[in-house]
Amino acid sequence: MIDTTTTLGVKDVDTAEVFAAFVTQLSNLQWNPDMTGPQAFGAMKQVLLLRNLVDHHATTLTGELDRLGIADHKTTRLRELLISMGFAPAVAGRYVRISATSDIDLLLAHAADGSISSEHTDAIIRGLGHIDTRSPEPLDTVQRCEYLRKLLSHYFAGFTPAEINLYARQLGNELAAETPGGLPAAEDKNINSYADRITDDGRLEISANLDIIAGEKIRTLMETLSKPKPQPDGSPDPRTPEQICAAAFETIVELAAQGLADTTFSAKPTNCLLWTWSADNPALGGDLQNMGAITEATARMLSCDTTITKIVLDPNGVPLSVGEEKRFFTPGQRKALLVRDRGCIKCGAHAGRCQGHHLVHWSRGGPTNLDNGCLLCTSCHDDVHHHGWDIIMGFDRHPWLIPPASVDPKRQSIPSYHRRTVRLDDAAA
Predict the structure, then answer these.
(1) What is the band of 324 on the pLDDT scale with cuts at 50, 70, 90?
(2) Which positions fall inside the HNH nuclease domain (predicted)?
(3) What pLDDT shows up at residue 400?
(4) Phi, psi of 32 (to 5 degrees)
(5) Residue 264's pLDDT band (boundaries 50, 70, 90)?
(6) Which of 147, 211, 239, 342 is most buried, judging by how many CB atoms fall within 10 Å of its CB?
(7) Which residues are paired to 358 by β-bridges?
(8) What is the distance between the terminal CA atoms of the chain, rounded to a whole angstrom?
(9) What is the pTM of this model?
(10) Residue partners of 118: CB distance under 8 A and separation at least 6
């Protein structure tokens, strides 16, 4: 049994020794295998109390690390310092947010005695912050205490952190509606938010909360660009609605990267990326500046039609050379591709959303000319580089698609989208 009479952090006791003894007792703790249901429930309540107290002390120590400037000494931010120590990113962010709040005595008192979890504490703090943003004038002490009591009452009524956040949004909306000069939540840009994170498997996860005008723009563009695309043989689009919407969002990003206000065709390459490549491992695809490692196949796809500055690094990470942009189609060539292909040769997407693709890749000696190029939208470009689709130049000097065996076991050639009335058996041998 743990000696609960031990007081941590008292000035005349070696804190390290106290913690060592505490950890030892906790590690050696054994639960009675014959305990009853009520006993197990009571033990779990005690573990929850202990866990809440540990979170409170971790938050307090986070504030001490900040006060002492430990992160500054290590030339990093406090959250990153905690992550490097082994805390999960979400936990580290929570500790930093709570430790930065020192003016909510009632809430911190509940956290100090273990009666409220750090997740709920964080939800209440963020909820108060949201209510603050909905008020044209800063909340005074009386108002702040009143809203704190309302949020705390939701916690003690058994509501989850997400439900407390939702309740705080409702309170903030009511405040804005009742206050002269307050804006409805739908129209208030001050509460717009955007967050992204790179996942463990190297993907980008995005969440956003936007006002009604920004939302209307996004939904209009998404509806315009997220129509299903039939396959070259006329079969329905095999993608799920989520995949179609993700491709539409990528198209919006492409158009923004081009600096276009509409879908007119541009002779300008579509992105500006920094690509570092190791001289020691030429088979690897290298690294993008923001997202990290890519495969060789993805590197080939990007280099078809994107302004990539390729920087070769020696084993010490020192640049050896900077690549030159010699592989891109000229404005005149891109206009010629537009006249011939009219749009994506696979799905028919507008030419303004297309990239120039080398049939024989530039890195493999393929020339940058009309007979070795075609237009592909971002989604179809990915199909060619990653999903088994091939392209050949036909007898008519137009590109033809060859589907993978999973789509057509015979892999019969298909004409480009705007020439689907043409068939190989119509032509003389």
Answers:
(1) very low
(2) 332-382
(3) 94
(4) -70, 115
(5) very low
(6) 147
(7) 373
(8) 90
(9) 0.50
(10) 52, 55, 56, 58, 59, 91, 94, 95, 98, 111
